[in-house]
Amino acid sequence: MSKTWFITGASSGFGRELTALLLERGHRVAATVRKPDALRDLAATYGERLWVGVLDVTDGAAVRSVIDRAFAELPRIDIVVSNAGYALFGAAEEVADAQIERQIATNLTGSIQVARAAIPHLRRQNGGRIIQISSSVGQAAYPTMGVYAATKWGIEGFFEGTIPEIAPFGIEVTLVEPGASRTNFAGSSADAGQILDVYDQTPVGDFRRIVASAGLAMFPGDPHKIASAIIASADQSPAPKRLTLGSDAYALVHAALTERLATLEAQKELAHATDVDA
């Protein structure tokens, strides 16, 4: 059955892949981009089934305005995909203050504002689905990705608290946690701090060498398959809280959760011992 999707960051990466695939399958898409002509080719092919809004998610007032307009101009929006974001690479002291602020404003605060703007509309229409593009790095992290990981851990925490708040209104949420995929994630859309030689013989340098030598093998995820899996998840009921996509994502998250649970179990006695005495 045809549905209407709202997607931020639709000019490239998963946003572009989702938009194109949904239109090809007969759905309607309200897509936001930062540059007005970014989806000109799709608009020429699909006409009125593609609604385009210009949006920078770091502008909270603009987020509310564009989402309000989309819900007003379209009969119903079934699924909101919060996808806008980019990667920032660099050890903690290699990235600049302005880079950190922009990363948080886009990936974390921008995603929170998209959800906050959409929830009242979804509530008034008695339900809908929010799909938040997170990352496997939202459960673990690699050297040079600490700030990026912070934004993904942050948005996961936001939704852990928000999901039970909005469930009574029929609004469900899925956090998508892809691994490294063959989009422009590490290319034109990414940012990087300065490289300090002092980190060359540390895990930072080791990670950089692995990335440089592995080539495409470092990016096993197929964007088309990932987009297809995201679309299919919208028909699952109840909605999966998390969707881990990619063999590398599975391995990273599995190792991180296994280690975390083992550490927690080892502290069980200590945890209970610090309660107030009966």
From TrEMBL:
Q: Which GO terms describe its molecular function?
A: oxidoreductase activity
**Which InterPro entries did the record assign?**
NAD(P)-bd_dom_sf, SDR_fam, SDR_oxidoreductase
Specify the superkingdom: Bacteria
Going by the UniProt record, its keywords in alphabetical order are: Oxidoreductase
Q: Which CDD domains match?
A: 17beta-HSD-like_SDR_c (cd05374)
Q: Which Gene3D superfamilies does the annotation name?
A: NAD(P)-binding Rossmann-like Domain (3.40.50.720)
Q: State whether keyword Oxidoreductase applies.
A: yes
Family designation: Belongs to the short-chain dehydrogenases/reductases (SDR) family.
- The molecule here is called Short-chain dehydrogenase/reductase SDR
Q: Which organism is it from?
A: Beijerinckia indica subsp. indica (strain ATCC 9039 / DSM 1715 / NCIMB 8712)
